[in-house]
Amino acid sequence: MPVSEENPNSPLEPAEGPAEHPDDPAAEGAAETPAETLTGNPAEKAAETRKSAARVPAAPPRILCVANQKGGVGKTTTAINLATALAAVGPRVLVIDLDPQGNASTGLGIPSAAREVGTYDVLLDGSAIDDAIMPTAVPNLSVMPATVHLLGAELELIDMERREFRLADALARHALGFDYILIDCPPALGLLTLNALVAADAVLVPLQCEFFALEGLSHLVKTIELIRAKFNPRLEIQGLVLTMYDKRNNLSDVVAADVRGYFGAKVYETVIPRNVRVSEAPSHGKPVLLYDLRCPGSQAYMSLASELLKREQTRAAA
Fold first, then answer.
1. Domains of the chain
2. Whole-prediction pTM value?
3. pLDDT in tens, 179-189
Protein backbone atom coordinates (compact mmCIF):
# COMPACT_ATOMS: atom_id res chain seq x y z
CA MET A 1 0.00 0.00 0.00
CA PRO A 2 1.70 3.24 -1.08
CA VAL A 3 1.95 6.05 1.42
CA SER A 4 2.82 8.80 -1.01
CA GLU A 5 3.47 9.66 -4.60
CA GLU A 6 7.07 10.31 -5.64
CA ASN A 7 7.70 14.04 -5.81
CA PRO A 8 11.31 15.07 -5.24
CA ASN A 9 10.53 18.74 -5.82
CA SER A 10 7.89 19.07 -3.11
CA PRO A 11 8.95 20.49 0.29
CA LEU A 12 6.26 18.28 1.77
CA GLU A 13 7.65 15.05 0.36
CA PRO A 14 8.20 12.58 3.23
CA ALA A 15 11.60 11.16 3.95
CA GLU A 16 12.44 7.64 2.91
CA GLY A 17 11.62 4.92 5.38
CA PRO A 18 9.30 5.99 8.22
CA ALA A 19 6.01 4.99 6.61
CA GLU A 20 7.18 1.39 6.52
CA HIS A 21 7.11 1.28 10.34
CA PRO A 22 3.83 2.89 11.40
CA ASP A 23 4.15 1.90 15.05
CA ASP A 24 7.79 2.87 15.55
CA PRO A 25 7.94 6.35 17.14
CA ALA A 26 11.67 6.52 16.52
CA ALA A 27 11.54 5.69 12.81
CA GLU A 28 14.44 6.96 10.75
CA GLY A 29 14.21 9.73 8.17
CA ALA A 30 13.59 13.45 8.44
CA ALA A 31 11.20 15.63 6.47
CA GLU A 32 12.55 18.21 4.09
CA THR A 33 10.30 20.87 5.61
CA PRO A 34 12.49 23.02 7.91
CA ALA A 35 11.43 22.74 11.53
CA GLU A 36 11.58 26.52 11.92
CA THR A 37 8.71 26.95 9.45
CA LEU A 38 6.45 25.27 11.99
CA THR A 39 7.22 27.62 14.85
CA GLY A 40 7.13 31.32 15.49
CA ASN A 41 7.21 34.11 18.06
CA PRO A 42 4.04 33.85 20.20
CA ALA A 43 4.18 37.57 21.05
CA GLU A 44 3.71 38.48 17.40
CA LYS A 45 1.04 35.93 16.52
CA ALA A 46 -2.11 37.78 17.57
CA ALA A 47 -1.24 40.86 15.52
CA GLU A 48 -0.18 38.74 12.56
CA THR A 49 -3.43 36.76 12.70
CA ARG A 50 -5.46 39.98 12.55
CA LYS A 51 -3.42 41.12 9.55
CA SER A 52 -3.83 37.74 7.85
CA ALA A 53 -7.59 37.75 8.37
CA ALA A 54 -7.78 41.25 6.92
CA ARG A 55 -5.83 40.41 3.77
CA VAL A 56 -7.89 39.73 0.68
CA PRO A 57 -6.33 36.93 -1.41
CA ALA A 58 -6.48 36.85 -5.19
CA ALA A 59 -9.32 34.34 -4.99
CA PRO A 60 -11.86 33.42 -2.30
CA PRO A 61 -10.64 30.82 0.18
CA ARG A 62 -11.19 27.20 -0.73
CA ILE A 63 -13.48 25.80 1.99
CA LEU A 64 -13.08 22.11 2.79
CA CYS A 65 -15.39 20.36 5.22
CA VAL A 66 -13.75 17.44 7.06
CA ALA A 67 -16.75 15.22 7.73
CA ASN A 68 -17.90 11.71 8.52
CA GLN A 69 -20.84 11.00 10.79
CA LYS A 70 -18.99 8.06 12.34
CA GLY A 71 -16.83 8.94 15.32
CA GLY A 72 -13.25 7.82 15.81
CA VAL A 73 -12.22 7.85 12.16
CA GLY A 74 -9.61 10.61 12.43
CA LYS A 75 -11.59 13.73 11.43
CA THR A 76 -10.08 16.08 13.97
CA THR A 77 -6.62 14.56 13.69
CA THR A 78 -6.76 15.01 9.93
CA ALA A 79 -8.08 18.57 10.15
CA ILE A 80 -5.34 19.64 12.58
CA ASN A 81 -2.39 17.99 10.90
CA LEU A 82 -3.41 18.60 7.30
CA ALA A 83 -3.92 22.29 8.14
CA THR A 84 -0.47 22.39 9.78
CA ALA A 85 1.21 20.75 6.80
CA LEU A 86 -0.50 23.15 4.38
CA ALA A 87 0.43 26.21 6.44
CA ALA A 88 4.05 25.06 6.65
CA VAL A 89 4.53 25.58 2.91
CA GLY A 90 2.88 28.97 2.55
CA PRO A 91 -0.92 28.91 2.24
CA ARG A 92 -2.77 30.83 4.96
CA VAL A 93 -5.09 28.36 6.64
CA LEU A 94 -8.01 28.71 9.04
CA VAL A 95 -9.43 25.79 11.00
CA ILE A 96 -13.05 26.23 12.09
CA ASP A 97 -13.83 24.02 15.08
CA LEU A 98 -17.50 23.12 14.72
CA ASP A 99 -17.39 20.12 17.08
CA PRO A 100 -18.78 20.85 20.57
CA GLN A 101 -16.04 18.64 22.01
CA GLY A 102 -13.54 21.31 20.94
CA ASN A 103 -10.77 18.81 20.25
CA ALA A 104 -9.43 20.69 17.25
CA SER A 105 -9.01 23.80 19.40
CA THR A 106 -7.26 21.81 22.13
CA GLY A 107 -5.07 20.01 19.61
CA LEU A 108 -3.91 23.35 18.24
CA GLY A 109 -2.92 24.56 21.70
CA ILE A 110 -5.92 26.74 22.56
CA PRO A 111 -6.99 26.08 26.20
CA SER A 112 -10.67 26.34 27.08
CA ALA A 113 -10.11 29.37 29.30
CA ALA A 114 -8.66 31.34 26.38
CA ARG A 115 -11.67 30.86 24.10
CA GLU A 116 -13.64 34.03 24.75
CA VAL A 117 -15.34 34.19 21.33
CA GLY A 118 -15.85 31.12 19.18
CA THR A 119 -17.96 29.37 16.60
CA TYR A 120 -21.07 29.52 18.82
CA ASP A 121 -20.90 33.31 18.95
CA VAL A 122 -20.47 33.54 15.18
CA LEU A 123 -23.34 31.14 14.42
CA LEU A 124 -25.87 32.15 17.06
CA ASP A 125 -25.03 35.71 18.12
CA GLY A 126 -23.76 37.15 14.86
CA SER A 127 -20.31 37.97 16.24
CA ALA A 128 -17.70 39.05 13.72
CA ILE A 129 -15.49 36.24 12.49
CA ASP A 130 -12.40 38.42 13.00
CA ASP A 131 -13.20 38.55 16.72
CA ALA A 132 -13.32 34.75 16.96
CA ILE A 133 -10.11 33.94 15.09
CA MET A 134 -7.10 33.05 17.23
CA PRO A 135 -3.44 32.45 16.32
CA THR A 136 -1.73 29.11 16.81
CA ALA A 137 1.90 28.07 17.30
CA VAL A 138 2.16 27.50 13.55
CA PRO A 139 2.76 30.52 11.28
CA ASN A 140 0.01 30.98 8.67
CA LEU A 141 -2.38 28.81 10.73
CA SER A 142 -5.28 30.23 12.75
CA VAL A 143 -8.30 28.67 14.43
CA MET A 144 -11.85 29.68 15.21
CA PRO A 145 -12.28 27.71 18.43
CA ALA A 146 -15.27 25.88 19.84
CA THR A 147 -16.56 26.92 23.26
CA VAL A 148 -18.73 24.99 25.73
CA HIS A 149 -21.77 26.96 24.53
CA LEU A 150 -21.66 25.04 21.24
CA LEU A 151 -23.12 22.03 23.09
CA GLY A 152 -26.58 23.59 22.93
CA ALA A 153 -26.28 25.02 19.44
CA GLU A 154 -28.15 22.19 17.71
CA LEU A 155 -31.31 22.91 19.71
CA GLU A 156 -30.99 26.68 19.46
CA LEU A 157 -30.55 26.58 15.70
CA ILE A 158 -33.83 24.74 15.12
CA ASP A 159 -36.01 27.83 15.31
CA MET A 160 -33.57 30.30 13.80
CA GLU A 161 -34.03 31.97 10.43
CA ARG A 162 -31.84 30.50 7.69
CA ARG A 163 -30.61 27.93 10.17
CA GLU A 164 -28.75 25.93 7.51
CA PHE A 165 -26.92 29.02 6.21
CA ARG A 166 -25.66 30.58 9.45
CA LEU A 167 -22.01 29.71 8.81
CA ALA A 168 -22.18 30.41 5.07
CA ASP A 169 -23.72 33.83 5.73
CA ALA A 170 -21.09 34.65 8.37
CA LEU A 171 -18.25 33.73 6.01
CA ALA A 172 -19.84 35.71 3.17
CA ARG A 173 -19.98 38.86 5.31
CA HIS A 174 -16.20 38.97 5.75
CA ALA A 175 -13.36 39.19 3.25
CA LEU A 176 -11.11 36.65 4.91
CA GLY A 177 -7.42 36.65 4.05
CA PHE A 178 -7.03 32.87 3.98
CA ASP A 179 -6.26 30.50 1.14
CA TYR A 180 -7.85 27.44 2.76
CA ILE A 181 -10.52 27.00 5.41
CA LEU A 182 -10.86 23.55 6.98
CA ILE A 183 -14.03 22.90 8.98
CA ASP A 184 -13.83 20.17 11.62
CA CYS A 185 -17.33 18.69 11.98
CA PRO A 186 -18.96 16.77 14.83
CA PRO A 187 -19.55 13.01 14.35
CA ALA A 188 -23.21 13.44 13.37
CA LEU A 189 -25.28 14.71 10.47
CA GLY A 190 -27.05 17.39 12.50
CA LEU A 191 -27.45 21.13 11.99
CA LEU A 192 -23.83 21.92 12.80
CA THR A 193 -22.56 19.53 10.15
CA LEU A 194 -25.27 20.77 7.79
CA ASN A 195 -24.02 24.33 8.25
CA ALA A 196 -20.52 23.19 7.40
CA LEU A 197 -21.66 21.34 4.26
CA VAL A 198 -23.72 24.30 3.07
CA ALA A 199 -20.75 26.66 3.54
CA ALA A 200 -18.15 24.35 1.99
CA ASP A 201 -16.88 23.99 -1.55
CA ALA A 202 -16.02 20.34 -1.04
CA VAL A 203 -15.94 17.52 1.50
CA LEU A 204 -12.85 15.66 2.65
CA VAL A 205 -13.86 12.31 4.14
CA PRO A 206 -11.51 10.51 6.55
CA LEU A 207 -12.27 6.80 6.56
CA GLN A 208 -10.90 4.36 9.10
CA CYS A 209 -9.58 1.13 7.61
CA GLU A 210 -12.11 -1.04 9.42
CA PHE A 211 -15.29 -2.76 8.28
CA PHE A 212 -17.81 -0.71 10.29
CA ALA A 213 -16.40 2.51 8.89
CA LEU A 214 -17.85 1.56 5.50
CA GLU A 215 -21.41 1.25 6.79
CA GLY A 216 -22.07 4.95 7.27
CA LEU A 217 -20.27 6.09 4.16
CA SER A 218 -23.26 5.53 1.88
CA HIS A 219 -25.42 7.70 4.17
CA LEU A 220 -22.88 10.51 4.02
CA VAL A 221 -22.76 10.32 0.22
CA LYS A 222 -26.57 10.51 0.04
CA THR A 223 -26.54 13.47 2.42
CA ILE A 224 -24.02 15.28 0.23
CA GLU A 225 -26.22 14.66 -2.81
CA LEU A 226 -29.28 16.03 -1.00
CA ILE A 227 -27.43 19.14 0.14
CA ARG A 228 -26.12 19.68 -3.37
CA ALA A 229 -29.68 19.50 -4.71
CA LYS A 230 -31.34 21.69 -2.05
CA PHE A 231 -28.78 24.09 -0.57
CA ASN A 232 -25.32 24.06 -2.14
CA PRO A 233 -24.99 23.07 -5.81
CA ARG A 234 -21.20 23.51 -5.81
CA LEU A 235 -20.64 20.90 -3.08
CA GLU A 236 -18.52 17.94 -4.15
CA ILE A 237 -16.45 15.17 -2.61
CA GLN A 238 -12.89 16.46 -2.71
CA GLY A 239 -11.45 13.13 -1.66
CA LEU A 240 -11.40 10.24 0.79
CA VAL A 241 -8.47 9.70 3.14
CA LEU A 242 -7.80 6.23 4.52
CA THR A 243 -6.77 6.56 8.17
CA MET A 244 -5.48 4.26 10.92
CA TYR A 245 -4.01 1.94 8.31
CA ASP A 246 -2.18 -1.06 9.75
CA LYS A 247 -0.24 -3.04 7.16
CA ARG A 248 -0.04 -6.00 9.58
CA ASN A 249 -3.83 -6.31 9.47
CA ASN A 250 -5.27 -7.90 6.34
CA LEU A 251 -8.57 -6.12 6.94
CA SER A 252 -6.89 -2.78 6.26
CA ASP A 253 -5.96 -3.95 2.79
CA VAL A 254 -9.46 -5.35 2.17
CA VAL A 255 -11.16 -2.12 3.22
CA ALA A 256 -8.72 -0.01 1.21
CA ALA A 257 -9.29 -2.13 -1.89
CA ASP A 258 -13.08 -1.95 -1.52
CA VAL A 259 -13.05 1.84 -1.11
CA ARG A 260 -10.70 2.34 -4.05
CA GLY A 261 -12.78 -0.03 -6.16
CA TYR A 262 -15.92 2.03 -5.56
CA PHE A 263 -14.60 5.63 -5.42
CA GLY A 264 -11.60 5.24 -7.72
CA ALA A 265 -9.46 8.35 -8.08
CA LYS A 266 -11.37 10.15 -5.33
CA VAL A 267 -9.39 8.11 -2.80
CA TYR A 268 -6.03 9.62 -1.91
CA GLU A 269 -2.95 7.53 -2.60
CA THR A 270 -1.57 8.66 0.73
CA VAL A 271 -2.76 6.62 3.68
CA ILE A 272 -2.43 7.64 7.32
CA PRO A 273 -0.84 4.86 9.37
CA ARG A 274 -1.58 3.94 12.95
CA ASN A 275 1.12 5.74 14.90
CA VAL A 276 1.48 6.25 18.64
CA ARG A 277 2.99 9.72 18.18
CA VAL A 278 -0.16 10.90 16.39
CA SER A 279 -2.18 9.75 19.41
CA GLU A 280 0.15 11.43 21.90
CA ALA A 281 0.40 14.83 20.24
CA PRO A 282 -3.06 16.24 21.23
CA SER A 283 -2.34 15.70 24.93
CA HIS A 284 0.55 18.15 24.51
CA GLY A 285 -1.62 20.67 22.66
CA LYS A 286 0.36 20.25 19.46
CA PRO A 287 -0.15 18.93 15.94
CA VAL A 288 1.96 15.84 15.42
CA LEU A 289 4.19 17.79 13.01
CA LEU A 290 5.29 19.96 15.94
CA TYR A 291 5.40 17.07 18.38
CA ASP A 292 7.53 14.74 16.24
CA LEU A 293 8.28 15.83 12.69
CA ARG A 294 10.14 12.60 11.90
CA CYS A 295 7.44 10.12 12.88
CA PRO A 296 5.46 8.17 10.24
CA GLY A 297 2.26 10.05 11.04
CA SER A 298 3.88 13.43 10.35
CA GLN A 299 5.42 12.12 7.15
CA ALA A 300 2.04 10.84 5.98
CA TYR A 301 0.22 14.13 6.67
CA MET A 302 2.90 16.06 4.80
CA SER A 303 2.46 13.68 1.89
CA LEU A 304 -1.31 14.15 2.07
CA ALA A 305 -0.94 17.93 1.97
CA SER A 306 1.31 17.69 -1.06
CA GLU A 307 -1.19 15.46 -2.83
CA LEU A 308 -4.09 17.75 -1.91
CA LEU A 309 -2.28 20.79 -3.31
CA LYS A 310 -1.66 18.94 -6.57
CA ARG A 311 -5.38 18.11 -6.82
CA GLU A 312 -6.35 21.69 -6.11
CA GLN A 313 -3.93 23.00 -8.73
CA THR A 314 -5.35 20.57 -11.28
CA ARG A 315 -8.90 21.62 -10.42
CA ALA A 316 -8.06 25.32 -10.67
CA ALA A 317 -6.43 24.82 -14.06
CA ALA A 318 -9.35 22.86 -15.49
1. 25-317 (3.40.50.300)
2. 0.82
3. 999 999 999 88
